[in-house]
Amino acid sequence: MNKLKLIEKLKDRCSLTQIEATNIVNLFFTEMADTLAKGERIELRGLWSFYLKAYKSYTGRNPKTGEIVKVSSKKLPFFKCGKELKERVDLPPN
């Protein structure tokens, strides 16, 4: 599912206009991104959580040229699947 399909589902299930559904979905993802940018954790119990994982700087190598490159420290979002979602995904098909 992509963002447009999510907007369509929300519009159909909740009897919203296209603009209202788009605004809701955009608000949801904007707030998630802003929360992660502040270094805070996002959690929907049982479904999933996102948090930032800090990586230290290290010396790497450019695979194309073999040149040694210094890679600076960084923070990346990390996804963790919840127990309920794992169980739901693992159900046999009907």
| Multimeric organization | single chain
For the largest beta sheet, what order do the strands appear in spatially?
Answer: 1-2-5
Q: CATH homologous superfamily of the largest domain?
A: IHF-like DNA-binding proteins
Q: Which radius of gyration do the C-alpha atoms yield?
A: 19 Å
The overall number of domains is 2
Low-confidence stretches: none
The CATH class of the largest domain is Few Secondary Structures
The class by helix and strand makeup works out as alpha+beta
Distance between the termini: 20 Å
Helix and strand string, N-terminal first? HHEEEEEH
Q: How can the largest sheet be summarized? A: 3 strands, antiparallel
- The assigned CATH architecture of the largest domain is Irregular
The beta-strand count equals: 5
Strand content: 25-35%
Helix content: 40-55%
Number of helices: 3
The gist of it:
By secondary structure, the chain is α+β, with helices and mostly antiparallel strands.
List strands and helices in order, with pairings.
Layout: H1 3-14, H2 18-37, E1 42-44, E2 48-55, E3 58-61, E4 68-71, E5 74-81, H3 83-89
Antiparallel strand pairs: 1-2, 2-5, 3-4
Helix pairs in contact: 1-2
